Amino acid sequence: MKKNYFLILFLLPIILFSQTESGILNIDATLPYQGFGEGTPLLGSAEYKIYYSGNTAEIDKPIIFVDGFDPNDSRSIPLMYSLLDYGSENLGDVVRAEGYDLIILNFPEEYFSPTDGTTTIKGGADFIQRNAYILVELLNTINGLKVGSEENVIIGPSMGGLISRYALAYMEDQSLDHDTRLYVSFDSPHRGANVPIGIQYTFNYMVNGDPGTTELEPLVDGLLNSAAAKQMLIDHYLGHVDGTGVDQDGSTHTPKGAPNFRDAFQTELDGLGFPSNTRNIAVTNGSGQGQLTGTPGMELINHVFNIAANTDATLDVHFAPLASQNITVSDIDITFFSIPLASFSATAESTAASNGLDSAPGGQFDLYSFDDGSNALVQEFVNNLNSQYFNFIPTLSGLAISSETDWYAIPNENDSPFDNIFLPDNNEPHVKLTEGMAGNVEFILEEIRQGSLSVSELEVTKIKLAHNPISTELVILSHQNFNNANVRISDLTGKIVLNSNISIIDRTVIPINLSSGLYVLNVESDNLSFKTKLVVQ
Q1: Which of these, 64, 187, 409, 450, is most buried using a 10 Å CB contact count?
Q2: Using an 8 Å Cβ cutoff, are 289 and 190 in contact?
Q3: Which of 285, 81, 71, 274 is nearest to 190 (CA)?
Q4: Could you give the residue range(s) of every CATH 2.60.40.3080 domain in the chain?
């Protein structure tokens, strides 16, 4: 293993020099989709690029990378490739050096639907279903171009994980062959995403209320009012406002999604389920140990902004409160020469089952990313924040655990429908790639490399590890019982450092005392043969 790893590093510059790539290619869906509020079904369109493993334009080991939520198309395909950097390496370079062809699918900011050539669609934040139908067409295209028998790998970060899940499950439901062996969900919101409701109320009022601040309009339209945002956000200001579109209607203050979008999408996704002919794995950036981002009810910002000549706006925004509490999360006062002109306030209440979403364990949204240097008002907002992050993708959502209603609960990995999961101890920025033997990149690469074995050979549906990396205990999860199973751990020299016969039932904990490093775990019993790399921290 080590010899092969260093050989790849040595040969990487030579291999990359001899690789070729396609231009930017267009792909149009053949399946139309009609979203809520649309008068007719519309076809979607996107673009993709193929980064071949060799110097010939031949696809034989495809990995498809599906872009996520990007309302302003701020991530071009070349930029997406560069975002695969981790440490001094790049995931795209590594897989290409190992013979895989990387295909990156991007949904453009805005285009005319192929249906009529006149209807505008905002691709990076469009209905998830329509983008999934584009991926269906891309899979059909790649499968038609592919040589050999290697099945596809699909990596879906963020919303791209939902698009991928929907496309694969839809194809199976329609008896279409996706020819895919591995589906990687990377910090994807299977139970929804979160943007603090206090921020939503504040930004919406600043744009659509009395100030009419046009500088924030693209932020509100993309981050909050796009179709995809309304499908994914667990709590959305549109679930609470009256006919003005700004003021609270007073009917409910607990989390509620955008009407006609959120619940309808989650119901459809749950009904479709997960693809069953693939190995499904989840990588989350949310803590598996209950670590918080900030604290429930904390003051996120309290600052006076000069929004026009002699006109000030005082913004006071808070995270959602503790369970069963109701607090003011957005409070705004507009003055002209210190004379009150307008005011706005909105409250939020957390359910009895859970503290507020904003501080819950999860992949973190970086509020500093709002500031691209082009807007002085946004820059001032960022400079006066009391927290750089909020919980964007709750850990439980990234693992698709639906049996737990407390967003702060330490997840029971056996409740996740995924065949394998990566769960860090600490919260990390959303879709961050982490390096080292204990990082999520090594976890993803190991899953990709195991593809030469069939699903039945891996016995992936019978047992899985609760954690990998581990420290003082090995936890094996199983949906069936295995009596007198042999659990054996070897180091990289082949020396056996643990050899034990035990019964594996549901959740089996095995204490270990091993030095940090890389090991090989073998679990064998009647009708079971499981082997994987094991990282000890």
Answers
A1: 187
A2: no
A3: 274
A4: 440-536
Look at residue 471 in the predicted model and tell me its pLDDT: 87
Q: Contact at 8 Å (CB) between 364 and 390?
A: yes
Binned at pLDDT 50, 70 and 90, residue 130 comes out as very high
Contact 233, 262 (CB under 8 A): yes
What distance in Å separates the CA atoms of residue 185 and residue 165, rounded to the nearest whole number?
A: 8
CATH class of the domain defined by 13-186: alpha beta
Helix axis angle, 159-173 to 128-145, nearest 10°: 70
Q: How far apart are CA 498 and CA 515, in angstroms?
A: 12
Domain 440-536 has what CATH class? mainly beta
If one counts every other C-beta atom within 10 angstroms of the C-beta of residue 14, the result is 9
Of 476, 471, 475, 474, whose CA–CA distance to 517 is shortest?
471
Q: Where in the chain is the domain with CATH 3.40.50?
A: 13-186
208-240, pLDDT tens digit by residue? 998 788 888 888 988 899 999 999 999 999 999
Query: Judging by DSSP bridges, how do beta strands 326-336 and 311-318 pair with one another?
Result: antiparallel
C-alpha torsion angle, residues 61, 67, 73, 77 (rounded to 10): -20
